[in-house]
Amino acid sequence: MSGQFHPLTLLRNLLRPLDPALLAILALLFAYGWVLMTSASPERLPTLRMHMMIAVGVMWIVAAIPVQRLLSLAAPLYLGGVVLLVGVLLFGEISKGAQRWLDLGIVRLQPSEFMKIATPLMLAWYFHVRDGVTSWHDYVVAAVLLAIPLGLIVVQPDLGTSLLVAAAGLFVIFFAGLSWKLIVPVFTVAVVGIVLLVGFGDQLCQPDVDWHLLREYQKQRVCTLLDPNQDPLGRGFHTIQSTIAIGSGGLWGKGWMDGTQTHLAFIPERHTDFIFAVLAEEFGLIGALVLLGLYLLLILRGLRIAARAPMPGARLLAGAVTMIVFTYAFVNIGMVSGILPVVGVPLPFLSYGGTALVTLCIGMGMLMSVARSRRTPKD
Amino acid sequence: MSEFRNPEQGWRVFRQRAVVAAVFVVACLALLMWRLYHLQVVQHDYFHSRAEGNRIAVLPVPPNRGTIYDRHGEELARNYSAWTVEINPAQVRNIDRTLDALAEVLPFDERDRRRFRRQLLESKYFDSVPVRTHLDDEEVARVAARLYRLPGVEVRARLYRNYPHGETAAHVIGYIGQINDRDVQRIEASGDLANYRGSEYIGKSGLELRYERELHGTTGVEQVEINAAGRAVRLLSRTPAVNGSDLELTLDLGLQRAAEAALGNRRGAVVAIEPATGGILALASMPSFDPNLFIDGISTTDWRALSDSPDHPLLNRAIYSAYPPGSTFKPFMALAGLGTGKRTLTQRFDNQGVFTFYGQRMLDRKSKCQNGVDLHTSLVHSCNTYYYELANELGIQTIADFMAPFGFGRRTGVDIPGEAAGVLPSPQWKRERFSKREHQQWYGGETISVGIGQGYNAFTPLQLAHALTILLNDGEVRPPHLVRRIVDGQNGRILDAAPLPRTPVPLDPRHTEAVRKAMVDVTKVGTARAVFADAGYDAGGKTGTAQVFSLRGQKYVEEHVAERLRDHSWFIGFAPAERPTIAVAVLVENGGFGSQSAAPVARKVFDYHLLGRKVATQAGETDAQLAEELEQ
Q1: Is B49 contained in some domain?
Q2: What is the pTM of this model?
Q3: Is residue B598 part of a domain?
Q4: Among the partner residues B32, B46, B54, nearest to A337 by beta-carbon distance
């Protein structure tokens, strides 16, 4: 006990909750993000530093919470989140045509962002509680638990976040052992649907065709993806300019701070959703592969942590959080490189934006908490 | 139905699923890698050029048009800077709204708006387009103060063309105008289209048209980096424009003014040439017009006034109006007689002023033309019978062959466009000119008409003046020209633009000397003696009258003939008598006898040229007295 006053011992104790491998990968990602922001939007560096410090602090706090405690918080967090979403629906601020923000006087919250973590946590806790006695109607309950926040986010409307929340929930259900008999047909239908959409995009994108489930701007996003050149200065501009930036970067890139697309403001949202275009333009294919490699390491590390966790809830939580990072990365890069529609999904750990960074770091903290539960099994 | 699973089983299921998830992740990342490889390696060249095209705009830098100077360095066509208010379309979202907002600050009319629309269509995206030009200081201040509320609107100084002397020498200088579709086709055909990117004006007539290539200069190129908003942010490279060359004319502005003033409000032309060089000292055609009207598109009212006028002010009479030369042709006929040996200097004729042709008697009532008429007398007193007989003896083919080297019936090649060839008649010409067989036959009576400068032959004032210089130069041919030097716009190098002498006409100096002496006597004792009385210098000349209307045997009485049907008045002359420095041809349309209208104009031109401005004015005052003398 006397050692705890020794500075080194104190440091060791402080760092104990943090998984060293994850921490190293995150440090590299943060560094990469810093380098990119220096080029894309240097005036935001002070704010970015603050965001990073807050995110790391939150991560450290979450990591220090035992995983059982986290799971026990699932229901209150989930319920609170749903209440906030209803609040947004009733009293929310309208910004850019969507109702996403809730002003609580002190802070402006985007509850949908928070639900990206709260929903999989809730589902993980549910399956944790039902462990050993899981039956088909548990999947129905899980589907309902997922559908409630999802529906509330879809009507805001916020396609990007609802996709991520849906993905997070589905990953939990998938890891919980949903029968392949269900997964395979649904997956097949989805793939066929996408193929049909691409094949018949021209007809579907006629102005008079009404897509019943999606709003007009969401239809336009999909149609723009199918043919960005239809409207090169309007809706297609983002995709065209970002693919030009990526393609012109070549193998080695144009060099740090030398991206013409970046510095002449051709890349839209270059510090947020489209920061990958900056990376690919200035650091080329090599730089992009380095990033993909870091993500792959992080995901494999996350899955490994999940696979080794003794508690079912911890496993599901860790697996879902890991796959959320993957989904973010895949959807974002797919969108910026023009193979997925433009939806508002940030590049994990690199895009500017405090809420998303903190959310992701909460997820990382949970991962670390799960990792620790393996090392110090108490029950 | 619920199933029972122990914790180990759940763990196994999870591990299995985690492997599936990992495989899925790797597959998705591989898809991204394939996509990135495709964009960054396979299609790299394409995207590279797209990115370059994105960021680089090539802007033309129009050159300054060359200045045109007279022989003493007076500016005849120049550029001046004026304020314009312009809109940069790249920085404006709604052009109409911007135009409306601008209209509240600075009124402009529908015509400005239409012109702006047209130029906007033709302009490049990154170049600003003028809405209104020639703002005065007060207007500039008003717009400048509100620029902050008008994004994309800017006030700029642009260079404009101006002809400071207005109507003076308008036919020579010509004018520029906005480039139209026909001009585009023309410059495209000549391969110069690229050089006109950024140019708004092009030469349309006169020297401005003829020397377009020299005056225009070479358009420069600026490569600028542009951002997504279309605003130029950095200059990448710049090839400066090479300004157009300046033209230095042989024209003497003062003399030109004197010639135009001498013609006054009559229709006519004056061509004055320096015999030693062929340089044109004055080339006047009246009435004239103001070339400044044409630069920015002439208004309908102005255009109607010019094009509908019966006086045809746009017509350059000096090079386009071809009329029978009348008796001004006689000196050349005299040279033909001497040159072919049909006449000698001393040969005298006592035909009593009668020439009989196929039983028809033609009379010359002038007493000096009745007896002992030699070549000298025939010129001094303009004896028709002498030349009827000479022409008859020579025959039309000989006359045509002798006259051709003087440039009659052929364009002189003067360096302004729009020259007429005129007619030097010959049997061959007549065969080609007329389609009906009965009209193609050449008749002997037509030859004797040609002998006194009537009939089919028709020459421009320029042709007559040019032929006269050949006579004065003893056969040396100096092609008439307006530009003597071209000053390179880039390096200031001076290029001698005067054309090379052509093959001389073989003339015996004794013959030309004799003819010149006779022409000098025309102004002393002959048909122009009254006009040149008290000139203070010796001059030579020959009057002429071109018949407009055949009176079929009736006596020509001026008062009885409508003004437009009166004869055209000609005069050719030179001064001083020894080593002349000026040769002129004067045409006054419907001016009557040559001594009446044309010769006094020549006198004033000579006066200015030899004695200076002051004397010329005095001569103008005595003009009225001279005319009175003639009446008596």
Answers
A1: no
A2: 0.65
A3: yes
A4: B32
